[in-house]
Design brief:
20 helices, three-stranded antiparallel β-sheet, single chain, four-stranded mixed β-sheet
């Protein structure tokens, strides 16, 4: 028994056997109601796609790559299918707030759901995996890119040329309506080779690897770090943090259930502002420095902390080669070399995300005052 799911990015995707059983499971079906890009639809109206279709797309690409490599194993495809199953409401949108309250990130939850660990004892995914001869711990490790037993499979799901990223870059670009994300993944898959449990590109792979790096940076600058997307999501975080009736069980909610809980809570006014797109407006911006950031914070101490947002774009955590993902290895001149050693484009983009700005946005009622204070000091 099989199903054909029509994916707008990859075309018809055939699922059968264990994949069909996992897709039909409760926690996977929940992903239908978790938006891939949180509240980015406040800026990009088409960005209503979900973790459900992205997970299917990642699985499809993992199968394509394994076929190109000539490796017969379903582990990467299973891990790719399950890699986002632990996402909280609105994906990364308010993950920072959940982490500050409950000390978990979505990778932690992903592992628990795949293994059926508390409080996800009701997950039937470990039973499905075991019935088909797979160890849930192995799949959980590969899905979160932490497997020592299957390092190559981990890299396929989470590495410098991984199926997760190739799918979300193409998918997010399509649904946001931006003219980027044209990655020739088939050429990449058919030129990479495996050496010592590592995916290695060859000289023919270099232009496609460059396109992945370029697309990633453009998508972060254009979509993921768009100031208004970040404002909307931070406001949603404020609404949740201001609620008295919070619980770690909220992590299990989908987007609609989460919004409904806030709507019935004591911070529903903030939610109304978000739904009506009455968002905070940028009152001040300046180049980032630690000293300037401290001055901004001190200048706004008289206001309620949830009346304004101090944002740093790109965020401070987004730094280093692990974020830019420009550490792919290629065979060039008969030896292994880093992509930045053989590509002037990859090298030039290494510091692209290090140029940061401080943005202060605030509620309409204090906009003039905040703007006046910060610009008066010429911070």
């Amino acid at each position: 028994m099989y199903k054909i799911i029509q994916d707008p990015v990859n075309g018809p995707i055939k699922i059968e056997g264990i994949f069909n059983e996992i897709v039909d499971s409760k926690y996977f079906q929940r992903l239908r109601y978790i938006k891939q890009l949180g509240l980015c639809n406040t800026v990009f109206p088409g960005a209503n796609h979900t973790r459900f279709e992205h997970s299917l797309g990642s699985m499809f690409l993992a199968k394509e790559l394994m076929e190109a490599l000539g490796i017969d194993s379903n582990i990467p495809a299973l891990a790719a299918l399950l890699h986002d199953i632990g996402h909280m409401p609105f994906s990364h949108g308010i993950e920072e707030e959940f982490h500050s309250l409950y000390g978990v990130v979505h990778e932690d939850i992903t592992k628990k759901i795949i293994k059926g660990s508390s409080p996800y004892n009701d997950s039937n995914i470990p039973d499905i995996l075991k019935q088909h001869g797979y160890n849930p711990q192995d799949i959980a490790d590969v899905a979160t890119g932490t497997s020592k037993k299957y390092p190559l499979f981990s890299e396929i799901v989470s590495g410098p040329m991984d199926v997760d990223e190739i799918d979300y870059l193409r998918r997010d670009a399509l649904f946001c309506g931006v003219t980027m994300g044209q990655i020739d993944y088939k050429r990449l898959f058919n030129t990479v080779v495996v050496d010592d449990n590592e995916l290695i590109g060859v000289e023919k792979s270099i232009p496609t690897i460059e396109s992945v790096i370029i697309t990633r940076i453009l998508m972060f600058n254009t979509v993921y770090f768009h100031k208004t997307c970040r404002i909307a999501q931070k406001m949603l975080g404020y609404a949740y943090m201001d609620m008295k009736d919070r619980s770690i069980e909220d992590i299990k909610l989908n987007d609609f259930e989460f919004m409904e809980k806030i709507k019935k809570g004591d911070s529903s006014d903030m939610l109304k502002h978000i739904l009506n797109r009455e968002l905070f407006k940028v009152a001040f911006r300046a180049g980032y420095s630690k000293e300037k950031l401290q001055s901004v914070k001190e200048s706004l101490e008289e206001f309620n902390s949830h009346e304004y947002i101090i944002d740093i774009i790109p965020p401070l955590y987004f730094s280093g080669r692990g974020r830019i993902k420009n550490y792919a290895t290629v065979y060039f001149s008969s030896k292994k070399q880093g992509i930045t050693d053989v590509s002037s484009i990859a090298m030039a983009l290494s510091g692209e995300m290090e140029n940061r700005q401080i943005l202060v946005s605030c509620a309409k009622g204090i906009y003039k005052k905040v703007s006046g204070i910060l610009n008066e000091f010429n911070l």
